Amino acid sequence: MNLIGRKIIALVDHDFEDLELWYPILRLQEEGATVDLVGPEAKTKYIGKYGVPATTDLSFGEVDAHMYDAILVPGGWAPDKLRRYPEVIDLVQKMDQLNKPIGQICHAGWVLISAKILDGKTVTSTPGIKDDMENAGATWVDVPVVVDKNLVSSRRPPDLPDYMRAFIDLMI
Q: How far apart are CA 1 and CA 132, in angstroms?
């Protein structure tokens, strides 16, 4: 229960990778954190790639980076949708400017690319977006998890235990 009193945003839209959303949420809740699901619309059900639903607590426009301790971006196909919302890009940029932990796994790197916060960072992701990450100015490595200052990145579901250990350690 190392994260009691901490508030974390978990971004969501349709076609999120089910494990990459729910595993981190459950681990953070086990540590005592409050996790708000935030999407395009509040109190709306979004469906993951494999059919697992997630109902949002708040909409993008209802959250303020100053009120949260960290943000998580799941993978799947949702990141390609999430990066099209100016509110998401602004939120990720503000979290980065405030040096708050940003977690991204798999295709979630697309959101960070669009937020233009990867230049000079070392990251990992699904190998499918390696070129995108490098073209955004990042150094890409093929390892389970990378921590570069406030950014925690990971490749795919089998890396979730390493990803969440690193993310939680960064928050403690």
A: 37
Rounded to 10 degrees, the C-alpha dihedral 8/74/124/130 comes to -140
Q: How far is CA 16 from CA 79, 121, 145, in A?
A: 8, 25, 20
> Please, what are the domains in the chain?
7-171 (3.40.50.880)
Relative to beta strand 145-148, strand 151-154 is antiparallel
- Put residue 34 in one of left, alpha, beta given phi > 0 → left and psi -120 to 50 → alpha: beta
Number of neighbouring beta carbons within 10 Å of residue 161: 13
Q: Is the backbone of residue 120 left (phi > 0), alpha (psi -120 to 50) or beta?
A: left
DSSP secondary structure code for residue 37 in this structure:
E
Each residue of 3-40: pLDDT tens digit?
A: 999 999 999 999 999 999 999 999 999 999 999 999 99
Active-site residue set: 106-107
pTM, two decimals, is 0.98
